[in-house]
Design brief:
Radius of gyration: 22 Å
Shape: globular
Structural class: mainly beta
Distance between the termini: 36 Å
Strand content: 35-45%
Helix content: 10-25%
Number of helices: 9
Protein backbone atom coordinates (compact mmCIF):
# COMPACT_ATOMS: atom_id res chain seq x y z
CA UNK A 1 0.00 0.00 0.00
CA UNK A 2 1.55 3.31 -1.11
CA UNK A 3 0.64 6.74 0.16
CA UNK A 4 1.60 10.03 -1.49
CA UNK A 5 2.52 13.09 0.57
CA UNK A 6 2.65 16.79 -0.01
CA UNK A 7 5.89 18.55 0.91
CA UNK A 8 6.11 20.68 4.03
CA UNK A 9 6.04 20.05 7.74
CA UNK A 10 3.77 17.06 7.52
CA UNK A 11 5.30 13.61 7.21
CA UNK A 12 3.42 10.47 6.21
CA UNK A 13 4.99 7.07 6.57
CA UNK A 14 3.51 3.73 5.47
CA UNK A 15 4.81 0.77 7.46
CA UNK A 16 3.87 -2.90 7.33
CA UNK A 17 0.67 -2.39 9.27
CA UNK A 18 0.52 1.26 10.29
CA UNK A 19 -0.18 4.59 8.64
CA UNK A 20 1.46 7.48 10.46
CA UNK A 21 0.50 11.07 9.81
CA UNK A 22 1.67 14.33 11.29
CA UNK A 23 -0.86 17.12 11.70
CA UNK A 24 1.63 19.91 12.32
CA UNK A 25 0.60 21.89 9.25
CA UNK A 26 -2.94 22.32 8.03
CA UNK A 27 -1.93 22.66 4.37
CA UNK A 28 -0.59 19.12 4.02
CA UNK A 29 -2.52 16.52 2.05
CA UNK A 30 -2.42 12.76 1.93
CA UNK A 31 -3.50 10.89 -1.16
CA UNK A 32 -5.62 7.98 -0.08
CA UNK A 33 -7.19 6.94 -3.36
CA UNK A 34 -6.45 7.83 -6.93
CA UNK A 35 -7.86 11.26 -7.69
CA UNK A 36 -9.06 11.79 -4.14
CA UNK A 37 -7.25 13.81 -1.48
CA UNK A 38 -8.04 14.93 2.03
CA UNK A 39 -6.16 16.95 4.61
CA UNK A 40 -4.34 14.67 7.03
CA UNK A 41 -5.53 16.71 9.99
CA UNK A 42 -9.14 16.59 8.83
CA UNK A 43 -9.06 12.81 8.53
CA UNK A 44 -8.15 12.68 12.18
CA UNK A 45 -10.10 15.73 13.30
CA UNK A 46 -13.36 13.99 14.21
CA UNK A 47 -11.85 10.57 14.96
CA UNK A 48 -9.00 11.46 17.30
CA UNK A 49 -11.42 10.29 19.99
CA UNK A 50 -14.12 7.72 19.17
CA UNK A 51 -16.84 6.12 21.23
CA UNK A 52 -17.89 9.49 22.67
CA UNK A 53 -21.15 10.02 24.59
CA UNK A 54 -23.84 11.95 22.73
CA UNK A 55 -26.61 14.24 23.94
CA UNK A 56 -29.33 16.35 22.40
CA UNK A 57 -28.51 20.00 23.08
CA UNK A 58 -30.95 22.90 23.32
CA UNK A 59 -29.73 26.46 23.92
CA UNK A 60 -32.98 28.21 23.09
CA UNK A 61 -36.58 27.12 23.28
CA UNK A 62 -37.14 26.14 19.65
CA UNK A 63 -33.97 24.44 18.37
CA UNK A 64 -32.32 21.10 19.10
CA UNK A 65 -29.24 19.32 17.71
CA UNK A 66 -27.02 16.36 18.51
CA UNK A 67 -23.89 17.09 20.54
CA UNK A 68 -21.56 14.37 19.26
CA UNK A 69 -19.05 14.24 22.07
CA UNK A 70 -18.76 15.53 25.63
CA UNK A 71 -17.43 14.24 28.93
CA UNK A 72 -16.99 14.99 32.63
CA UNK A 73 -14.61 17.73 33.77
CA UNK A 74 -15.49 17.69 37.48
CA UNK A 75 -17.63 15.45 39.68
CA UNK A 76 -18.76 17.85 42.40
CA UNK A 77 -20.01 20.33 41.48
CA UNK A 78 -20.78 18.44 38.26
CA UNK A 79 -19.20 20.11 35.23
CA UNK A 80 -19.22 18.85 31.64
CA UNK A 81 -16.64 19.60 28.94
CA UNK A 82 -16.96 19.66 25.15
CA UNK A 83 -15.50 21.21 22.00
CA UNK A 84 -17.13 24.30 20.55
CA UNK A 85 -16.67 22.45 17.24
CA UNK A 86 -19.31 19.96 18.42
CA UNK A 87 -21.97 22.66 18.81
CA UNK A 88 -23.91 24.07 15.82
CA UNK A 89 -22.95 27.67 15.00
CA UNK A 90 -26.37 29.13 15.74
CA UNK A 91 -26.22 27.69 19.27
CA UNK A 92 -22.57 28.58 19.70
CA UNK A 93 -23.34 32.21 18.85
CA UNK A 94 -25.85 32.30 21.69
CA UNK A 95 -23.25 30.94 24.10
CA UNK A 96 -20.68 33.48 22.91
CA UNK A 97 -23.11 36.35 23.41
CA UNK A 98 -23.65 35.23 26.99
CA UNK A 99 -19.95 34.91 27.82
CA UNK A 100 -19.80 38.32 29.48
CA UNK A 101 -22.64 37.31 31.79
CA UNK A 102 -21.13 34.04 33.02
CA UNK A 103 -20.62 35.47 36.52
CA UNK A 104 -24.18 36.78 36.76
CA UNK A 105 -26.36 33.81 37.66
CA UNK A 106 -29.57 35.58 36.68
CA UNK A 107 -28.25 36.11 33.16
CA UNK A 108 -26.35 32.87 32.65
CA UNK A 109 -27.24 31.05 29.47
CA UNK A 110 -29.28 27.96 30.23
CA UNK A 111 -28.54 24.82 28.26
CA UNK A 112 -30.42 21.53 28.33
CA UNK A 113 -28.75 18.23 27.46
CA UNK A 114 -30.77 15.04 26.91
CA UNK A 115 -28.74 11.83 26.82
CA UNK A 116 -28.99 10.38 23.30
CA UNK A 117 -29.91 6.73 22.85
CA UNK A 118 -31.16 4.27 20.26
CA UNK A 119 -34.63 5.64 20.98
CA UNK A 120 -33.77 8.54 18.64
CA UNK A 121 -31.86 6.75 15.89
CA UNK A 122 -34.54 7.75 13.35
CA UNK A 123 -33.25 11.35 13.63
CA UNK A 124 -29.54 10.74 13.03
CA UNK A 125 -29.61 11.67 9.33
CA UNK A 126 -30.18 15.32 10.30
CA UNK A 127 -28.99 15.32 13.90
CA UNK A 128 -26.01 17.68 13.56
CA UNK A 129 -28.18 20.52 12.27
CA UNK A 130 -29.95 22.88 14.66
CA UNK A 131 -33.62 22.29 13.81
CA UNK A 132 -36.98 22.69 15.49
CA UNK A 133 -38.17 19.69 17.47
CA UNK A 134 -40.74 18.96 14.78
CA UNK A 135 -38.20 19.14 11.94
CA UNK A 136 -35.89 16.83 13.93
CA UNK A 137 -38.70 14.35 14.49
CA UNK A 138 -38.51 14.75 18.28
CA UNK A 139 -41.04 15.72 20.93
CA UNK A 140 -40.14 18.30 23.60
CA UNK A 141 -40.53 17.10 27.17
CA UNK A 142 -42.64 18.92 29.70
CA UNK A 143 -40.73 21.96 30.93
CA UNK A 144 -38.45 21.79 33.94
CA UNK A 145 -39.61 23.36 37.19
CA UNK A 146 -37.54 26.36 36.14
CA UNK A 147 -38.91 27.60 32.82
CA UNK A 148 -35.61 29.40 32.10
CA UNK A 149 -34.21 26.15 30.71
CA UNK A 150 -34.90 25.03 27.13
CA UNK A 151 -37.03 21.89 26.76
CA UNK A 152 -35.49 18.44 26.92
CA UNK A 153 -36.14 15.60 24.46
CA UNK A 154 -39.09 13.58 25.70
CA UNK A 155 -37.81 10.17 24.54
CA UNK A 156 -34.45 10.62 26.27
CA UNK A 157 -34.16 8.73 29.57
CA UNK A 158 -32.00 11.40 31.24
CA UNK A 159 -32.31 15.19 31.15
CA UNK A 160 -29.56 17.52 32.39
CA UNK A 161 -30.42 21.18 32.99
CA UNK A 162 -27.22 23.20 32.81
CA UNK A 163 -25.69 26.67 32.72
CA UNK A 164 -22.63 28.00 30.92
CA UNK A 165 -19.57 28.04 33.21
CA UNK A 166 -16.86 29.17 30.80
CA UNK A 167 -15.58 29.11 27.23
CA UNK A 168 -11.80 28.62 27.27
CA UNK A 169 -9.93 30.12 24.31
CA UNK A 170 -7.62 27.45 22.88
CA UNK A 171 -5.34 29.99 21.22
CA UNK A 172 -5.54 28.58 17.70
CA UNK A 173 -7.90 31.09 16.09
CA UNK A 174 -11.13 30.35 14.34
CA UNK A 175 -13.08 30.89 17.54
CA UNK A 176 -12.18 27.44 18.85
CA UNK A 177 -12.98 27.12 22.54
CA UNK A 178 -13.38 24.45 25.18
CA UNK A 179 -16.89 24.78 26.60
CA UNK A 180 -17.68 24.03 30.26
CA UNK A 181 -21.27 23.52 31.41
CA UNK A 182 -22.35 23.21 35.03
CA UNK A 183 -25.24 20.84 35.76
CA UNK A 184 -27.96 22.29 37.99
CA UNK A 185 -30.51 19.49 37.89
CA UNK A 186 -30.72 15.92 36.56
CA UNK A 187 -33.99 14.10 35.85
CA UNK A 188 -33.76 10.31 35.43
CA UNK A 189 -36.62 8.14 34.24
CA UNK A 190 -37.47 5.00 36.18
CA UNK A 191 -37.19 2.90 33.01
CA UNK A 192 -33.37 3.04 33.07
CA UNK A 193 -32.97 2.32 36.77
CA UNK A 194 -32.42 -1.06 38.38
CA UNK A 195 -32.62 -2.30 41.95
CA UNK A 196 -29.28 -2.50 43.79
CA UNK A 197 -28.04 -5.69 45.43
CA UNK A 198 -28.87 -5.96 49.14
CA UNK A 199 -26.63 -3.71 51.22
CA UNK A 200 -24.39 -5.45 53.71
CA UNK A 201 -24.08 -4.40 57.32
CA UNK A 202 -22.92 -0.81 57.41
CA UNK A 203 -23.32 -0.42 53.64
CA UNK A 204 -24.67 2.69 51.98
CA UNK A 205 -28.40 2.93 51.44
CA UNK A 206 -28.86 2.96 47.65
CA UNK A 207 -32.29 3.66 46.18
CA UNK A 208 -31.48 2.46 42.65
CA UNK A 209 -28.65 2.13 40.11
CA UNK A 210 -28.50 3.55 36.59
CA UNK A 211 -28.48 0.60 34.20
CA UNK A 212 -26.29 1.13 31.11
CA UNK A 213 -27.98 -1.70 29.18
CA UNK A 214 -31.39 -0.10 29.69
CA UNK A 215 -30.05 3.32 28.65
CA UNK A 216 -29.02 2.04 25.19
CA UNK A 217 -26.55 4.94 24.84
CA UNK A 218 -25.44 6.31 21.50
CA UNK A 219 -21.70 6.73 20.83
CA UNK A 220 -20.19 9.14 18.29
CA UNK A 221 -17.55 7.58 16.03
CA UNK A 222 -16.76 10.70 13.97
CA UNK A 223 -17.75 11.90 10.48
CA UNK A 224 -21.46 11.43 11.15
CA UNK A 225 -21.13 7.78 12.19
CA UNK A 226 -22.62 6.30 15.36
CA UNK A 227 -22.51 3.04 17.25
CA UNK A 228 -23.58 1.46 20.50
CA UNK A 229 -22.46 -1.34 22.79
CA UNK A 230 -23.39 -5.01 22.56
CA UNK A 231 -23.54 -5.36 26.33
CA UNK A 232 -21.91 -4.52 29.64
CA UNK A 233 -18.47 -5.98 30.39
CA UNK A 234 -17.01 -6.42 33.84
CA UNK A 235 -13.42 -5.91 34.93
CA UNK A 236 -12.46 -5.41 38.56
CA UNK A 237 -9.64 -3.07 39.50
CA UNK A 238 -6.22 -4.77 39.70
CA UNK A 239 -5.34 -6.45 42.97
CA UNK A 240 -2.03 -7.28 44.58
CA UNK A 241 -0.73 -10.81 44.33
CA UNK A 242 -0.69 -12.93 47.48
CA UNK A 243 3.02 -12.33 48.01
CA UNK A 244 2.46 -8.55 47.64
CA UNK A 245 5.24 -8.42 45.06
CA UNK A 246 3.06 -7.74 42.04
CA UNK A 247 -0.39 -6.99 40.67
CA UNK A 248 -2.90 -9.07 38.75
CA UNK A 249 -6.03 -8.42 36.69
CA UNK A 250 -9.21 -10.45 36.48
CA UNK A 251 -10.44 -11.40 32.98
CA UNK A 252 -12.63 -9.07 30.93
CA UNK A 253 -16.06 -10.77 30.80
CA UNK A 254 -19.50 -10.01 29.42
CA UNK A 255 -22.06 -9.41 32.16
CA UNK A 256 -24.98 -11.82 32.29
CA UNK A 257 -27.93 -9.44 32.55
CA UNK A 258 -31.19 -10.86 33.89
CA UNK A 259 -34.19 -8.85 35.04
CA UNK A 260 -36.50 -10.52 37.52
CA UNK A 261 -40.28 -10.36 37.36
CA UNK A 262 -40.22 -7.95 40.29
CA UNK A 263 -38.09 -5.57 38.22
CA UNK A 264 -37.84 -1.93 39.24
CA UNK A 265 -40.61 -0.94 36.82
CA UNK A 266 -43.08 -2.59 39.21
CA UNK A 267 -41.47 -1.17 42.36
CA UNK A 268 -43.87 1.44 43.69
CA UNK A 269 -41.36 2.90 46.17
CA UNK A 270 -39.44 4.53 43.32
CA UNK A 271 -41.14 7.41 41.46
CA UNK A 272 -41.50 7.49 37.68
CA UNK A 273 -38.77 10.15 37.57
CA UNK A 274 -35.97 10.73 40.05
CA UNK A 275 -34.89 14.37 40.28
CA UNK A 276 -31.47 15.39 41.57
CA UNK A 277 -30.77 19.03 42.39
CA UNK A 278 -26.99 18.87 42.18
CA UNK A 279 -26.40 21.32 45.03
CA UNK A 280 -28.00 18.70 47.28
CA UNK A 281 -27.25 15.00 47.94
CA UNK A 282 -28.52 12.68 45.20
CA UNK A 283 -31.74 10.82 46.07
CA UNK A 284 -30.16 7.70 44.58
CA UNK A 285 -27.72 7.63 47.50
CA UNK A 286 -24.60 8.35 45.40
CA UNK A 287 -23.37 10.77 42.74
CA UNK A 288 -24.66 9.21 39.47
CA UNK A 289 -22.72 11.42 37.06
CA UNK A 290 -20.35 8.67 35.86
CA UNK A 291 -23.33 6.38 35.30
CA UNK A 292 -25.23 8.84 33.08
CA UNK A 293 -22.36 10.22 30.97
CA UNK A 294 -21.67 7.05 29.02
CA UNK A 295 -19.94 5.53 27.18
CA UNK A 296 -16.78 7.42 28.11
CA UNK A 297 -13.73 6.96 25.84
CA UNK A 298 -10.54 5.96 27.64
CA UNK A 299 -7.52 8.18 27.15
CA UNK A 300 -4.55 5.91 27.90
CA UNK A 301 -2.16 8.73 28.77
CA UNK A 302 1.58 8.06 28.58
CA UNK A 303 4.43 10.30 29.72
CA UNK A 304 8.02 10.24 30.83
CA UNK A 305 8.92 11.05 34.40
CA UNK A 306 11.69 13.65 34.12
CA UNK A 307 14.06 10.87 35.24
CA UNK A 308 13.03 8.92 32.06
CA UNK A 309 10.69 6.47 33.82
CA UNK A 310 7.82 5.73 31.35
CA UNK A 311 4.40 6.20 32.95
CA UNK A 312 0.97 5.27 31.62
CA UNK A 313 -2.52 5.40 33.15
CA UNK A 314 -6.13 5.30 31.88
CA UNK A 315 -8.36 8.38 32.10
CA UNK A 316 -12.06 8.07 31.21
CA UNK A 317 -12.71 11.80 31.60
CA UNK A 318 -11.19 12.27 28.13
CA UNK A 319 -12.51 14.07 25.05
CA UNK A 320 -11.51 16.01 21.94
CA UNK A 321 -11.79 19.75 22.54
CA UNK A 322 -10.90 20.93 19.01
CA UNK A 323 -11.34 19.31 15.62
CA UNK A 324 -10.39 19.96 12.02
CA UNK A 325 -6.95 21.31 11.10
CA UNK A 326 -5.84 21.67 14.73
CA UNK A 327 -7.16 18.67 16.67
CA UNK A 328 -6.80 18.87 20.45
CA UNK A 329 -7.63 16.44 23.23
CA UNK A 330 -8.04 16.89 26.97
CA UNK A 331 -8.17 14.65 30.02
CA UNK A 332 -9.42 15.54 33.46
CA UNK A 333 -7.27 14.41 36.38
CA UNK A 334 -8.48 14.27 39.98
CA UNK A 335 -6.50 16.17 42.58
CA UNK A 336 -6.40 13.92 45.67
CA UNK A 337 -6.50 15.13 49.27
CA UNK A 338 -3.70 17.49 50.10
CA UNK A 339 -3.88 18.94 46.56
CA UNK A 340 -1.23 16.48 45.31
CA UNK A 341 -1.25 15.90 41.57
CA UNK A 342 -1.48 12.72 39.51
CA UNK A 343 1.73 11.52 37.85
CA UNK A 344 0.29 12.26 34.40
CA UNK A 345 -0.37 15.90 35.21
CA UNK A 346 3.02 16.34 36.88
CA UNK A 347 4.83 14.76 33.94
CA UNK A 348 2.89 16.65 31.25
CA UNK A 349 3.45 20.01 32.87
CA UNK A 350 7.17 19.29 33.28
CA UNK A 351 7.91 17.66 29.91
CA UNK A 352 5.30 19.68 27.90
CA UNK A 353 3.99 16.65 26.01
CA UNK A 354 2.14 13.34 26.29
CA UNK A 355 1.01 10.36 24.25
CA UNK A 356 -2.41 8.72 23.97
CA UNK A 357 -3.05 5.11 22.95
CA UNK A 358 -6.52 3.79 22.17
CA UNK A 359 -7.69 0.86 24.28
CA UNK A 360 -9.07 -2.13 22.38
CA UNK A 361 -10.10 -5.52 23.72
CA UNK A 362 -6.69 -7.12 23.20
CA UNK A 363 -5.14 -4.49 25.49
CA UNK A 364 -7.87 -4.09 28.09
CA UNK A 365 -6.29 -6.19 30.86
CA UNK A 366 -2.96 -4.41 30.41
CA UNK A 367 -4.84 -1.11 30.63
CA UNK A 368 -6.40 -2.30 33.86
CA UNK A 369 -3.01 -3.22 35.34
CA UNK A 370 -1.66 0.20 34.40
CA UNK A 371 -4.15 1.75 36.84
CA UNK A 372 -2.47 0.09 39.84
CA UNK A 373 -1.33 2.61 42.49
CA UNK A 374 2.42 2.11 42.29
CA UNK A 375 5.19 4.51 43.31
CA UNK A 376 6.08 7.47 41.08
CA UNK A 377 9.53 6.07 40.39
CA UNK A 378 8.08 2.81 39.04
CA UNK A 379 6.81 2.18 35.51
CA UNK A 380 3.29 1.01 34.69
CA UNK A 381 4.61 -0.12 31.29
CA UNK A 382 6.79 -2.67 33.03
CA UNK A 383 4.04 -3.67 35.46
CA UNK A 384 1.51 -4.27 32.65
CA UNK A 385 3.99 -6.04 30.34
CA UNK A 386 3.76 -3.28 27.73
CA UNK A 387 6.48 -2.18 25.33
CA UNK A 388 7.08 1.59 25.38
CA UNK A 389 7.43 2.82 21.80
CA UNK A 390 9.19 6.16 21.41
CA UNK A 391 7.23 9.02 19.92
CA UNK A 392 8.52 10.54 16.68
CA UNK A 393 7.48 14.17 17.23
CA UNK A 394 7.32 14.52 21.00
CA UNK A 395 9.32 12.97 23.82
CA UNK A 396 6.59 10.69 25.12
CA UNK A 397 6.23 6.89 25.09
CA UNK A 398 3.37 5.11 23.32
CA UNK A 399 1.93 1.60 23.62
CA UNK A 400 3.47 -0.60 20.96
CA UNK A 401 0.68 -2.39 19.15
CA UNK A 402 -2.08 0.09 20.00
CA UNK A 403 -4.24 0.63 16.93
CA UNK A 404 -4.40 4.42 17.31
CA UNK A 405 -1.58 6.46 18.84
CA UNK A 406 -1.56 10.23 19.29
CA UNK A 407 1.42 12.44 20.07
CA UNK A 408 0.46 15.66 21.81
CA UNK A 409 2.12 18.93 22.75
CA UNK A 410 0.97 20.40 26.05
CA UNK A 411 -1.21 23.51 25.65
CA UNK A 412 -2.50 24.45 29.10
CA UNK A 413 -4.16 23.24 32.30
CA UNK A 414 -7.59 24.50 33.34
CA UNK A 415 -8.75 24.33 36.95
CA UNK A 416 -12.23 22.75 37.07
CA UNK A 417 -12.63 22.53 40.83
CA UNK A 418 -11.43 19.23 42.28
CA UNK A 419 -10.07 18.22 38.87
CA UNK A 420 -7.49 19.63 36.45
CA UNK A 421 -8.29 19.58 32.71
CA UNK A 422 -5.02 19.06 30.81
CA UNK A 423 -5.16 20.07 27.14
CA UNK A 424 -2.85 18.88 24.37
CA UNK A 425 -2.54 19.64 20.67
CA UNK A 426 -2.30 16.51 18.50
CA UNK A 427 0.81 16.96 16.37
CA UNK A 428 1.15 13.41 15.07
CA UNK A 429 -0.93 10.26 14.85
CA UNK A 430 -0.26 6.66 13.98
CA UNK A 431 -3.16 4.46 12.90
CA UNK A 432 -3.22 0.74 12.08
CA UNK A 433 -4.25 0.25 8.47
CA UNK A 434 -6.55 -2.54 9.62
CA UNK A 435 -8.89 0.05 11.21
CA UNK A 436 -8.97 2.54 8.33
CA UNK A 437 -11.76 3.11 5.83
CA UNK A 438 -11.00 3.08 2.11
CA UNK A 439 -10.59 6.87 2.18
CA UNK A 440 -8.13 6.78 5.07
CA UNK A 441 -10.34 7.77 8.03
CA UNK A 442 -10.47 5.83 11.29
CA UNK A 443 -13.27 3.25 11.10
CA UNK A 444 -14.86 2.85 14.53
CA UNK A 445 -16.61 -0.33 13.42
CA UNK A 446 -13.22 -1.95 12.80
CA UNK A 447 -11.53 -0.35 15.81
CA UNK A 448 -14.15 -1.45 18.40
CA UNK A 449 -12.80 0.73 21.22
CA UNK A 450 -13.24 -0.20 24.88
CA UNK A 451 -15.05 2.50 26.85
CA UNK A 452 -15.97 3.14 30.47
CA UNK A 453 -19.41 2.90 32.03
CA UNK A 454 -20.72 4.03 35.38
CA UNK A 455 -19.55 1.76 38.14
CA UNK A 456 -16.20 0.49 39.41
CA UNK A 457 -16.14 -2.65 37.28
CA UNK A 458 -18.26 -1.72 34.22
CA UNK A 459 -16.96 -1.27 30.67
CA UNK A 460 -18.36 -1.52 27.13
CA UNK A 461 -16.98 -2.47 23.72
CA UNK A 462 -18.44 -0.13 21.10
CA UNK A 463 -18.99 -2.68 18.36
CA UNK A 464 -22.57 -2.28 17.12
CA UNK A 465 -22.79 0.09 14.15
CA UNK A 466 -25.92 2.26 13.92
CA UNK A 467 -26.95 2.74 10.31
CA UNK A 468 -27.71 6.32 9.31
CA UNK A 469 -29.74 6.98 6.15
CA UNK A 470 -28.41 9.92 4.09
CA UNK A 471 -30.28 13.20 4.45
CA UNK A 472 -32.73 13.98 1.70
Amino acid sequence: LTFGINTGNVGLRAHNSFLAMSTMASSAHVQTKAGETKGAANLLGETAVVGKPCAWISVNHDKVALLDGYNIANMSPPILVMASDAIPNIMLDQLLLSGDNADNNSKQTKVTLSCASLREEHCLDRAKNALSFGEMGLVPAATSKNSDYPPAVDSSPIHMYCHLVDMIDLGVGGGKTMVLLGIDEVVMKKEILTLPPPAGDGGRSILALVDAAKMKPLAAMGHGKYATMSGVHLLLRPSQTQDKNGWESDPFVLKDVKYDDDDITTTSSIPDTVEWITSEPSPLGFNPLKAIVIPRPIGWISTYHPATVPHIAPYSFYIDVARGDTPMVAFSAFRPAGNSLKDAQLDVEETKCFGVSTVTQDLVEAMNLSSAPIERGESEFELAGLVAQAGTHVRAPLVQGAKVQLECEYVKTVDAGGFSVIIGKVVSSRVAKSVLTNDGAVDGKKLKPVTRLGYTDEYAVIDQCVEVSPSV
